[in-house]
Amino acid sequence: MSFHHQLLTFISPFSNMLRLLGKNIGLSYESQLRVLAYHDIPMSQKTHFSNQINWLNDNWNIITPNQFESMLLGDMPITGDNVLITFDDGFISNSIIAKEILNPLEIKAVFFVVSDFVDLTSNSNSRKFIAKNIMPGQNIEDIPEDLTNMGWKDLKELVKNGHTIGCHTKTHERLTSDLSELDLAREIESSAMKINKKLGIKVNHFAYTFGDIDSFSQEALNIASKNFNFVYSCIRGNNAVNVSQFAIRRESSATKNTSNEYRLLNNRAIDMILRGVFDSKYSKARKIIDSWCKQL
User: Which of 243, 204, 271 is nearest to 65 (CA)?
Assistant: First the structure.
């Protein structure tokens, strides 16, 4: 765990005490509309994830994608601490987690998938794709053996159980201004069309890849906003007040170790992140993407 996450773990109890004290004596208490972004959940971390989801269920209001939409658009009041659960990329572990942990708790999530990744039918091709596109710069030997993709059958099962499928591009390309308009359209529009056709649904949610401000552009947002009702980043922040539906903030929930395995943060660190401890660090990125939204 990085130093700042270790620091979060240390100061979390004191921060929570101050927050509860302020709430009890009638000081201002800002409601939260947060989005957690998960990726792969290694089977060695399945118990950790289960404990974390149960902890979130006890301490936060885990909302459905439909509730999130209504809150963000102003059709439903935002009160208290609300969090939406999302997953990126389309790893097979997401299907297992949904079936064994989320479904029994009746928790609905958004699964953002890379359409070309979903097409793959062999472990070796899946790992090659990950090394080239999702974790660029890695060799296939550096990718964990069990890190592979969900197929269309898995996605149909998620839809059947009330989850939402979102688009995460065609090949997991960075959507920078270096790409031509044709390339951007292929990554965004053609991916959505394939998902719509394969699953018989209308995809309304889009998360751009890598999530930082340098991996997106005004040009890409222009195309995404015409094809989806909701666009997500991985720029931290609270969505409760005056946030565009095309500039949704999300909180990363894990780090990646030297073996390219995702390691979930502990509950104290997650709570501090959801309380906004790191929000100020991302203020510049939020201002940039908000300015792009004004140009739509």
Answer: 204
